[in-house]
Amino acid sequence: MVEQLAVRDRTAGELSAAVHDEFGVSQPAASRHLRVLREAGLVRSRVDGSRRIYSLDREGLEEIGEWVDRLRALWGVSLSALDTEIARGKRDRRQES
User: Fold this and answer.
1) Quick count: other Cβ atoms within 10 Å of Cβ 55?
2) Statement: 2-56 belongs to CATH 1.10.10.10
3) Contact (CB, 8 A) for 51 and 10
4) How large is the average pLDDT for residues 72-96?
5) Collapsing DSSP states into helix, strand and coil, what is residue 56?
6) In whole angstroms, what is the distance from residue 97 CA to residue 82 CA?
7) Confidence band (pLDDT; 50, 70, 90) for 49?
8) Per the database record, which ranges form the HTH arsR-type domain (predicted)?
9) C-alpha to C-alpha distance for 44 and 52, rounded to whole angstroms
């Protein structure tokens, strides 16, 4: 759904049909997913007559990007420490031989 909305705004019906075609998700399940995305601040909706139009909420996506960047920074430190320990273990094994 997020990828579909990255291209352009879509109606709930369009999104429901897209996820049904690709993943076999029912219309009620698609509606629940849209509600969760809306409550999480990732999408917005507006009423246009009898249709509900969804769009991405750029601010919500930016928050996720910042969160991922923080996690990536933590992983970088952890992976560097792991790399050091692997090198230390290899060195110790060579010295024992």
Assistant:
1) 13
2) yes
3) no
4) 82
5) strand
6) 23
7) very high
8) 1-76
9) 10
Domains in the chain: boundaries:
2-56, 58-97
Burial, 80: exposed, middle or buried (Cβ in 10 Å; 0-12, 13-18, 19+)? Answer: exposed
- Are 1 and 18 in contact by the 8 Å Cβ rule? The answer is yes
Residue 5 is classified by DSSP as H
Q: Provide the pLDDT confidence category of residue 60 given band limits of 50, 70 and 90.
A: very high
Q: What percent of the chain has pLDDT over 70?
A: 100
Cβ pair 52, 12 in contact under 8 A: yes
Q: Is residue 78 very low, low, confident or very high in pLDDT (cuts 50, 70, 90)?
A: confident
Cβ contact 45:53 at 8 Å: yes
